[in-house]
């Protein structure tokens, strides 16, 4: 499978407190390339927002441009939401892997197998990579209090319609890394 024809990797970021260092985002990119099979074939795009022009911002953008095989889009006075949507609409591929700048992946993901399943089954339209163990009941931390309504829980329910790739049904989206 020519994964670059199916998947773009979009990484929204901002001027980090550690700027102009790019170590955090470089670690995330290395983690993706090392753990997502075939990711090194894909186009990586960093969308960098900032509130204002500054010497730190200019040096940070310069340093981002030194990262190999990555396209930088400087989006002055933008936001995470705007850059997320820009990553989706700018992509020439049918799927986009969205990942903020500060994630580290610990397990290998068979990306070609996952994309093949997403192509085969049109009901798979969002695959989220959780921070926590999928085998435990998850509570949304944003719940306003009081008794937990059933629709605020996420339960690990294996989707048995998909045999190529184990997937769990979810009814929510999050800023966790995901393929959409």
Protein architecture, described:
With 180 residues, the chain is of the alpha/beta class. Helices cover 25% and strands 19% of the residues. The protein has four helices and eight strands. The strands form two sheets. It has a six-stranded mixed beta sheet with strand order 3-2-1-4-8-5, with helices on both faces. A two-stranded antiparallel ribbon has the order 6-7. The longest helix is centred in the first third of the chain and has 13 residues, at 23-35. The two termini are 18 Å apart. The model has no long low-confidence stretch (mean pLDDT 85).
Low-confidence stretches: none
Shape: elongated
User: What is the radius of gyration?
Assistant: 17 Å
Overall mean confidence score, pLDDT: 85
User: Could you tell me the number of beta strands?
Assistant: 8
Query: Strand percentage, roughly?
Result: 15-25%
Q: Order of SSEs, N→C?
A: EHEHEHEHEEEE
Side by side, the strands of the main sheet go: 3-2-1-4-8-5
Distance separating the two termini: 18 Å
Into which percent range does the helicity of residues fall? 25-40%
Summarize the structure.
With 180 residues, this protein is α/β, with parallel strands linked by helices. It contains four helices and eight strands, in the order βαβαβαβαββββ.
Topology of this structure?
Blueprint: E1 7-14, H1 23-35, E2 43-50, H2 55-65, E3 70-76, H3 80-90, E4 95-98, H4 111-120, E5 127-128, E6 138-139, E7 153-154, E8 178-179
Parallel strand pairs: 1-2, 1-4, 2-3
Antiparallel strand pairs: 4-8, 5-8, 6-7
């Amino acid at each position: 499978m020519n994964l670059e024809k199916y998947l773009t990797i979009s990484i929204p970021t901002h001027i980090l407190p550690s700027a102009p260092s790019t170590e955090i985002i470089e670690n995330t990119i290395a983690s993706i390339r090392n753990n997502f099979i075939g990711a090194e074939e894909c186009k990586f795009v960093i969308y960098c927002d900032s509130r204002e022009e500054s010497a730190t911002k200019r040096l940070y953008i310069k340093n981002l441009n030194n990262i190999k095989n990555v396209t930088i889009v400087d989006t002055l006075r933008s936001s995470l939401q705007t850059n997320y949507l820009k990553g989706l609409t700018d992509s020439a591929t049918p799927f986009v892997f969205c990942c903020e700048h500060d994630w580290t992946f610990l397990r290998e993901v068979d990306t070609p197998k996952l994309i093949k399943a997403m192509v085969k089954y049109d009901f798979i339209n969002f695959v989220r990579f959780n921070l926590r163990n999928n085998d435990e009941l998850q509570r949304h931390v944003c719940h306003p209090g009081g008794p937990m309504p059933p629709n605020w829980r996420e339960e690990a329910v294996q989707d048995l319609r998909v045999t190529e790739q184990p997937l769990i049904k979810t009814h929510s989206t999050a800023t966790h890394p995901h393929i959409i």
